[in-house]
Design goal:
Helix content: 25-40%
Number of domains: 3
Number of strands: 18
Structural class: alpha/beta
CATH architecture of the largest domain: 3-Layer(aba) Sandwich
Oligomer: single chain
Shape: globular
Strand content: 25-35%
Bound molecules: xanthosine-5'-monophosphate
Strand order of the largest sheet: 2-1-3-4-9-8-7-5-6
CATH superfamily of the largest domain: HUPs
Largest sheet: 9 strands, mixed
Distance between the termini: 47 Å
CATH topology of the largest domain: Rossmann fold
Radius of gyration: 27 Å
Length: 512
C-alpha cells in the first residue's frame, strides 16, 4: 500500500468491514484491509495516512479476544476505532469496559457533544446512528474526552486529539447512520489529510499488480458464465496476463437471445483471449428429456455443466491457476469472510480447482460490491449492455419453462423475453428483474379463422433491493397491450399472455 497512501483497515471479523472499505473508496481514498493479526511492521510497511479498527463479534474482555499491538497507537498515525475497535483501543490504553444494562441495537439518537472540531465537526447536535453492541466504554482512557453519548451509552464517541486517536460506538459506514459519511470524511480529510485521487482505474491497476504477483509466469483458466462477474474478472485477468489466460464458455442452450454471441464476440475481439466456447445444448436437452421436476432439472443441469467444463479443460491441457468472479456478497453469503474459496452456486464448478490440480484460486473481485464490479467493468472497456445486465439465474431459461424442456419451448421463452426486454428498454421503466415464463398451460384460441391450441406466456416484472422480497412493477396497460400483441404476433406456439401480479413472498421471483 505504499503508493498511493491510503487508509489501512484492520479487520476484527465485523460484518461491516468491507463496507467500511467501500465507503472509504466512495470518498476517493485508497483503502486496504488486513486481518487484526497483522504485525506492527506490517502496519508500518503499509505506510497508511490513517488506520481504522473495525467492529467485531467478540468482547474485548473475553479470553483470547482479538487484539493488537498497542504500539499502533504510538506510530503517529491517526486511528479511528469503530464499535469493537473503539472498545479495544480504550481497553488497551487503560479505559474501563463494562457490559451495558441493555443491548443497544438499531437506529439510536446520539447526542453529539463536540461538533466544533475533529471527528464530529459540523454534525447536528443530535443525529440518528446505527448501534449494535452489548459492551460499552464506561470510563475513557487517560487523556481522552467523551464527544458523544446516548441515554444508555455514556461514551458513544471519544477522542484524544493530541494523539489523533478517535473512537465511535456507532457504525458510520452503515446508511442508517444519517451523518455517517460526514464522520468518515472528517476522519479521512480533516484528520488524516488523505488525498481523494483514488478511482476505479487505480483499483484496476492495483488488482492487475496483485494478479501478476499471484500468478507469476503461470497460466490461468477461467469459466465464463455469460454473466457480469466472470466477464469483468476475465477482462481484468486479460489486462494482467494477456494470452496466458484461457476462458471456457459452456453454452447450455438456455441463454437469453444474443447473449452467447455477445460473450464470444467480446472475448475474441475486444479481449482476444484463448476462448473455448462449447455449444452443449444438444447434450443438455438429451439429459433433461422427460424430466419435469424443477429440482431434478437443476441438478441435471449442474451435473452436466461440470462434466462439460471438465472435458473442455482436459482437452485444453493443464493450466496452473483457476480464476473465478466471486464478488463480496458471495463471500458473505458463504459465511467465510476469512476462509476458503467460494464457488458460485450456479455454474458450479465446485471441487474442480482441486480435482484438476490447480495450484491456486484467483478471485480478483472478492472485495468488491456488485455496483463496483459494474463500474470496474466499464473502466476495463466492457460494453454497458453487458455490464448492466439484469440478474439471470445460472440454469438460465431452463427454469423459466414449466414442465419438460424442449428446444421449441425454450425458443418461445427466449423470443418472448427478447420482446419484453426491448419494450421495457424503450419505455424507460425501471425494474430490478423482468422476464417471461412459458407457463406450461395450453389453451384454445383463435387466430385468423383457425382454432389454435397453444401455450400461455406469463410476464413477470419485479422491483427489489435484495431479491429476498419483491414488489410487482406496475406496467402500464398500453405497454401490456403492446407486449401481448407483439408476443402473440411474433412468437409462434403461444396464444395467450398473462401478467403475474404476485409479490415475493408468497411467490418466488422465478417460476420453475
Ligand atoms: P427466487 O426465484 O428464489 O429468486 O425468488 C431470487 C433471485 O435469485 C435468482 N436465481 C438464481 N441465481 N443461480 C443464480 O445465480 C440460480 O440457480 C438462481 N435461481 C434463482 C433469481 O433470478 C432472482 O434474481
Amino acid at each position: 500500500m505504499n503508493d498511493p497512501r491510503g487508509i489501512l483497515i484492520l479487520d476484527f471479523g465485523g460484518q461491516y468491514t468491507q463496507l467500511i472499505a467501500r465507503r472509504v473508496r466512495e470518498c476517493g481514498v485508497y483503502s486496504a484491509v488486513l486481518p487484526y493479526t497483522a504485525s506492527l511492521d506490517d502496519v508500518r510497511d503499509a505506510n497508511p495516512v490513517g488506520i481504522i479498527l473495525s467492529g467485531g463479534p467478540a468482547s474485548v474482555l473475553d479470553d483470547g479476544a482479538p487484539t493488537i499491538d498497542p504500539g499502533i497507537f504510538s506510530l503517529g498515525i491517526p486511528v479511528l476505532g469503530i464499535c469493537y475497535g473503539m472498545q479495544l483501543m480504550s481497553h488497551l490504553l487503560g479505559g474501563d469496559i463494562r457490559r451495558g444494562e441493555m443491548r443497544e441495537y438499531g437506529r439510536t439518537l446520539v447526542s453529539m457533544d463536540e461538533t466544533g472540531h475533529g471527528l464530529l465537526q459540523d454534525l447536528q447536535p443530535e443525529s440518528t446512528c446505527w448501534m449494535s453492541h452489548t459492551w460499552q466504554v464506561v470510563q475513557p482512557p487517560c487523556g481522552f474526552t467523551i464527544t458523544a453519548h446516548t441515554p444508555n451509552c455514556p461514551v458513544a464517541a471519544l477522542e484524544n486529539e493530541a494523539r489523533a486517536l478517535y473512537g465511535v460506538q456507532f457504525h458510520p459506514e452503515v446508511t442508517h447512520t444519517e451523518e455517517g459519511m460526514a464522520v468518515l470524511r472528517n476522519f479521512l480529510f480533516g484528520i488524516c489529510h488523505a488525498a481523494d485521487d483514488w478511482n476505479m482505474e487505480a483499483y484496476a491497476e492495483q488488482a492487475v499488480q496483485r494478479i501478476r504477483e499471484q500468478v507469476g509466469n503461470g497460466t490461468v483458466l477461467l469459466g465464463l458464465s455469460g454473466g457480469v462477474d466472470s466477464a469483468v474478472a476475465a477482462a481484468l485477468l486479460y489486462r494482467a496476463i494477456g494470452n496466458r489466460l484461457t476462458c471456457v464458455y459452456v453454452d447450455h442452450g438456455f441463454m437469453r437471445a444474443g447473449e452467447s454471441d455477445q460473450v464470444v464476440d467480446i472475448f475474441t475481439k475486444t479481449f482476444p483471449v484463448e476462448l473455448k466456447a462449447v455449444d452443449a445444448s444438444e447434450r443438455f436437452f438429451a439429459a433433461l428429456k422427460g424430466v419435469t421436476d424443477p429440482e431434478t432439472k437443476r441438478k441435471i443441469i449442474g451435473r452436466e455443466f461440470v462434466n462439460v467444463f471438465k472435458e473442455a479443460s482436459a482437452q485444453l491441457g493443464k493450466r496452473d491457476h483457476f480464476a473465478q468472479g466471486t464478488i463480496y456478497p458471495d463471500v458473505i453469503e458463504s459465511g467465510s469472510v476469512k476462509g476458503s474459496a467460494v464457488i458460485k452456486s450456479h455454474h458450479n464448478v465446485g471441487g474442480l480447482p482441486g480435482e484438476l490440480g490447480f495450484t491456486s484460486l484467483v478471485e480478483p473481485l472478492r472485495m468488491l460490491f456488485k455496483d463496483e464490479v459494474r463500474r470496474l467493468g466499464l473502466t476495463l472497456g466492457l460494453p454497458e449492455s453487458l455490464v448492466y445486465r439484469q440478474p439471470f439465474p445460472g440454469p438460465g431459461l431452463a427454469i423459466r419453462v414449466i414442465g419438460e424442456l424442449t428446444p421449441d419451448k425454450v425458443r418461445i421463452v427466449r423470443e418472448s423475453d427478447r420482446i419484453l426486454r426491448e419494450e421495457i428498454a424503450a419505455s424507460g421503466i425501471a425494474a430490478s428483474q423482468y422476464f417471461t415464463v412459458l407457463t406450461g398451460a395450453k389453451s384454445v384460441g383463435v387466430m385468423g379463422d383457425e382454432r389454435t391450441y397453444a401455450y400461455a406466456v406469463a410476464i413477470r416484472a419485479v422491483a427489489t433491493d435484495d431479491f429476498m422480497t419483491a414488489d410487482v412493477v406496475h406496467l402500464p396497460y398500453e405497454l401490456l397491450d403492446r407486449l401481448s400483441a407483439r408476443i402473440i404476433g411474433e412468437v409462434s406456439g403461444c396464444n395467450r399472455v398473462l401478467y403475474d401480479v404476485t409479490t415475493k413472498p408468497p411467490a418466488s421471483i422465478e417460476w420453475e
